[in-house]
Write a structure and sequence with these properties.
The chain has 5 helices and 12 strands. By secondary structure, the protein is an alpha/beta fold. 47% of the residues are buried.
Length: 337
């Protein structure tokens, strides 16, 4: 009898410790009941070392949960030695198995080289054709050396012209890393609705689209059935009141947000939304927050529920840090955010 009790106690302690460890690895925001997103799960994956995705997606998860009812889980790059959020760590994002039960995934990744036991959950999610929202550097989300199981996901993968040419970014989101069109850190972005897309439910209420992140270069036209929704105006400076930059950079405006369908060679078709605009300080723009919230509704099949002006009020405090490599807040664990 005593042996059974000790075994039961050991199993209970083991389970409790596992749950405790998992609680420290990511943030969970249960959705408010009775709202359109109730019952749907969103997994937000933060993993870039320049644009403070760990701050931006944390706040986006809070907004989607409190104001719209989505159950949100935010995953981060975790330093395995201390359990702290560390975007410089390229090979560890605990919790990706939660994608198995997710209805929508939001990626804000940059040059990650994740191990097979983590990448397999991303691969399975995409082969199932499930909805994905990719932000800024997610066009070059992965940099996995040749010869590894998931090297085809790399932003510069050479598939000899096959479907995986230039990896996940091109195949799933519509573009890989090309260049900065605006001068990084010098010329900010003003988003304007693409001609003919004014009636799209995704851009409802998006009349303030400004951010210090610069316009990315994309190749025109975008591939497949990509539908540009927002174009990027390059500004002369880094302030919302700055005028457009004169000259060729604004003669043909680059798309900075679009929709697309994707399909992995052995998978089902799915919907994607991509925004190459994006950093933690961009998220101070009410219009940009609304664009991403509306896009989540669209990916969830709830476009008919998008109001004229989605609720995007900041939840709690939001003090985004500046852009810059390794300029993240040190010493923070997910359960402390």
């Amino acid at each position: 009898m005593r042996i059974k009790f000790l075994i039961s106690l050991a199993l209970t302690l083991s389970f409790s410790w596992t749950c405790f460890a998992q609680e420290k690895a990511w943030s969970v925001f249960p959705g408010t009941s009775g709202l359109p997103g109730s019952g749907k799960s969103v997994v937000l994956v933060a993993g870039d070392d320049e644009y403070r995705s760990e701050q931006m997606l944390h706040q986006l998860g809070k907004i989607l949960a409190k104001h719209h009812g989505f159950d949100c889980t935010v995953l981060y790059c975790i330093n395995p030695e201390n359990g702290e959020i560390d975007p410089v760590v390229l090979n560890n994002i605990p919790g990706l198995e939660l994608l198995e039960q997710a209805d929508i995934a939001v990626f804000f990744l940059r040059f990650r080289n994740l191990p097979d036991e983590q990448m397999k959950f991303i691969d399975s999610y995409l082969r199932a054709g499930k909805p994905i929202l990719g932000i800024r550097t997610s066009t070059h989300a992965f940099s996995i050396p040749p010869g590894q199981t998931y090297s085809r996901y790399s932003f510069n993968y050479d598939d000899n012209g096959g479907p995986w040419q230039q990896g996940f970014g091109r195949l799933v989101l519509g573009e890989t890393w090309i260049n900065h069109h605006g001068h990084h850190g010098v010329e900010a972005t003003r988003g304007v609705i693409a001609p003919g897309q004014e009636a799209s439910p995704i851009v409802k209420g998006c009349d303030d689209l400004f951010g210090p992140s610069d316009v990315y270069t994309v190749r025109l036209p975008l591939p497949g059935d990509c539908q540009p929704l927002v174009l990027g105006t390059v500004l002369v400076g880094m302030n919302a009141t700055d005028p457009p930059l004169p000259g060729p950079k604004n003669e043909v405006k680059m798309p900075i947000a679009w929709t697309k369908t994707y399909q992995l060679p052995d998978g089902k078709k799915g919907n994607a939304f991509t925004s190459t605009m994006g950093c933690a300080k961009d998220f101070q723009s009410e219009g940009y927050r609304r664009l991403l919230v509306n896009a989540v509704y669209w990916l969830a099949g709830l476009e008919a529920e998008i109001p004229d002006r989605s609720q995007v009020e900041i939840v709690g405090t939001y003090e985004p840090l500046d852009m810059g490599s390794a300029k993240y807040q040190k010493g923070v664990k997910p359960n402390e955010k």
